[in-house]
Design goal:
The complex is a heterodimer. Chain A is mainly alpha-helical. Chain A has a domain of 49 residues. The longest helix of chain A is centred in the C-terminal third of the chain and has 16 residues. The mean pLDDT of chain A is 91. Chain B is of the alpha/beta class. Helices cover 30% and strands 28% of the residues of chain B. Chain B contains 14 helices and 30 strands. In chain B, the strands form 7 sheets. In chain B, strands 2-1-10-9-11-12-13-14-17 form a 9-stranded mixed beta sheet, sandwiched between helices. The model of chain B has no long low-confidence stretch (mean pLDDT 91). The chains are: A mainly alpha, B alpha/beta. At the A-B interface, helix 2 of A face helix 7, helix 9 and helix 13 of B.
């Protein structure tokens, strides 16, 4: 992996790569490529909530938030900051 | 003959019940507790004006409150109306619209809802956590419901605009459970049932709420959301509960098997106790069967423990099941003879298509095939499946234009053939899209796609992508002149996902006037599916490809 990803985005990629996707992503962003189906989205949400000890509200989880690895990462950071406060 | 509560009271076996495996730990509801509590809650329903024959909507995830209010509703002789909702409510307005359509069609007198679903609960819904004192409540309860009276109205077909609910009597439900228990020879001492399908799905409600109570076989329920977050939790729970029977849609088995292969926490023999691992509620891909036969043994799952079944909400639950203990049989037939003449001619090699056997009719159930307006006496002729059974619904509730019965036989709308008395499903003639066991009407997905500005109003078609075992949903849309195709595809995907929680696996963006103009949505969908199958999607400017598989 050559691209520079934020820590959270790298976590998401590693989860998808090891648990969900059947083939290596290479340099592709599996979210931007729209490779996830509805169940994989649920699994990703479950992973993020457990890993970062956060709880999303349903309306935070609209499709727009899953447009790329970095958009998910940004959502996680916002949520963690809000939880820490 | 008795009603559901009578059957629960008279169930054989030790005092059993249902254990819900919730986030905070397991909660066990024993049969005695459930019945006792049901009396108090029945009085609450009476105090709210519910009378025998009235309908009570229940809205919430699988858990003790669902069970509580179902039993109370039956205790007053009223009718349970399971209300469906997506795993996540991203677009409350869409879900509210869908719920309102079912509530109106069923004329729900009272609705009990999980307070966590306040944002979608229909107006006037009560919290299902209510715990008022019962002292001031009316004490005499109505006499037990007649076996012929309605127990459940199950909405599984029809769209939001045109909902159809299967009206099921106590007698029909008990007949369905009796037939299944006999076929599987369920034993209260030996067997344990484990399920995660939602109670608003026939398989969840009858298979894992009603069946354990009526048969005296212990039930274990995993909330659907827990399965979705971590499909391997299903297999883990099999191991920890010693479940002998579990079922799920083939797509779910496929995902859980794939995830299990990469899990670091699943112990190797987790599925060792299963004697019945049943694939049901969707079409079955022979390739998945092979994968399960290959990967199962490492989890302790023997290929002979695999089974199939065919059923539909209009027949309460099951119609056929495969012979327990013999595994899954795949019939190989000539592809062209099946598609052309409608004959299932045994074949081998590349011209053959595998069709999974769904087994024989359950005790008390009859099936026959109708082809070209004629009932076929001979085997291996493909046609519409018709069912006659004591487990059939009385009628549809809702705006129904077509009579579903012919002389006591239910026309299922599904296609198949019989071979050696075993039913083989070749297609579904209804348009319903099934994703992870949940039915979605194409109209609802098309409606959501139509809300995208770049899409020409009403020019959307939703259909099952050919060769995907139906669980990949495709949307074809006509684009407005000048709009950007890639952006349109993305907007359609997002709009459909946010409204229905179904992520379309394919979006086809088409030039104006590419979708056939027929008055029937059914014909449009068939035409698009056919074109996709032959790779002839004329005028398609942009196809969003699915994940690498």
């Amino acid at each position: 992996m050559t691209r520079a990803l934020s820590e959270e985005a790298a976590d998401v990629l590693s989860f998808l790569q090891t648990r969900i996707l059947d083939e290596p992503c290479g340099d592709a962003d599996p979210l931007a490529e729209e490779w996830l189906d509805s169940l994989a989205m649920e699994e990703l949400i479950g992973f993020l909530e457990d890993r970062y000890r956060i709880r999303f509200d349903d309306d935070e989880l609209v499709a727009e938030q899953f447009a790329s690895l970095e958009s998910v990462a940004a959502l996680v950071r916002r949520k963690r900051a809000a939880t820490a406060r | 003959m008795t009603n559901l509560l009578g059957a629960i009271e008279g169930a054989p076996g030790p005092s059993s019940g249902i254990t819900f495996h919730l986030d905070d730990g397991p909660v066990m509801c024993s049969r005695d507790e459930i019945l006792e509590r049901g009396e108090d809650d029945a009085r609450r329903l009476l105090a709210w004006g519910v009378e025998p024959g009235d309908t009570v909507g229940v809205l919430g995830p699988n858990g003790p409150p669902w069970l509580r209010w179902a039993v109370a509703t039956w205790r007053v002789g009223a009718v349970v109306v399971p209300l469906g909702f997506p795993l996540r409510v991203r677009d409350p307005s869409f879900v509210r619209r869908q719920l309102a359509s079912h509530v109106d069609a069923a004329r729900c007198r009272v609705i009990l809802a999980d307070p966590g679903l306040r944002n979608i609960a229909p107006e006037g819904a009560r919290s299902w956590d209510v715990d008022l004192g019962v002292e001031s409540l009316p004490s005499p309860l109505p006499p037990p419901a007649e076996p012929s009276s309605t127990a459940v109205i199950q909405f599984t077909s029809g769209s939001t605009a045109d909902p159809k609910g299967a009206v099921l009597s106590h007698r029909a439900i008990l007949a369905a459970i009796g037939g299944l228990s006999e076929a599987y020879a369920l034993d209260p001492v030996r067997d344990r049932l484990l399920g995660w399908l939602p109670f608003f799905h026939d398989n969840g409600l009858f298979g894992y709420l009603v069946r354990p109570l009526v048969t005296g076989v212990d039930g274990h329920v995993l909330p659907t959301a827990r399965f979705a977050r971590d499909p391997v939790s299903w297999f883990q729970l099999c191991g920890s509960t010693g479940a002998t029977f579990t079922s799920g849609p083939p797509s779910a088995w496929g995902v859980a098997m794939a995830r299990a292969g990469r899990s670091e926490t699943l112990s190797p023999g987790s599925l060792r106790s299963l004697t019945h691992a049943v694939l049901a509620a969707e079409g079955i891909d022979p390739a998945l069967v092979r994968r399960m036969e290959t990967a199962g043994p490492s989890l302790g799952l023997h290929p002979t423990s695999l089974g199939t079944g065919y059923g539909l909400a209009e027949a309460t639950l099951g119609v056929t099941v495969s012979e327990p203990g013999t595994g899954i049989h795949v019939d190989r037939v000539d592809r062209d003879a099946l598609a052309g003449r409608g004959e299932a001619v045994p074949a081998a090699g590349t011209s053959a298509r595998g069709v999974v056997s769904c087994g024989r009719a359950l005790p008390g159930v009859e099936i026959r095939i109708r082809s070209h307006a004629r009932v076929c006496a001979e085997e291996r002729t493909n046609g519409e499946i018709e069912v006659r059974s004591p487990s059939l619904m009385d009628r549809y509730q809702g705006s129904v234009t077509e009579e579903p019965f012919t002389g006591g036989w239910l026309r299922t709308g599904d296609l198949g053939y019989l071979a050696d008395g075993e039913l083989h499903i070749t297609g579904r003639s209804k348009d319903m899209l099934i994703v992870m066991g949940r039915n979605h009407s194409p109209e609802d997905l098309e409606w959501a796609a139509s809300t995208v500005r770049e899409v020409r109003p009403g020019r959307c078609v939703a259909f099952g992508w050919p060769g995907s075992g139906e669980d990949v949903v495709a949307l074809a849309v006509e684009i407005r002149t000048g709009a950007d195709p890639a952006r349109t595809a993305r907007a359609v995907r997002h709009a459909v996902f946010d409204a229905t929680s179904v992520m379309p696996g394919r979006v086809l963006v088409l030039e104006p006037d590419s979708i056939p103009k027929t008055s029937s949505g059914k014909l449009r969908r068939a035409a698009m599916r056919d074109a996709a199958e032959r790779g002839q999607l004329s005028g398609s400017t942009w196809i969003q490809e699915g994940p690498p598989r």
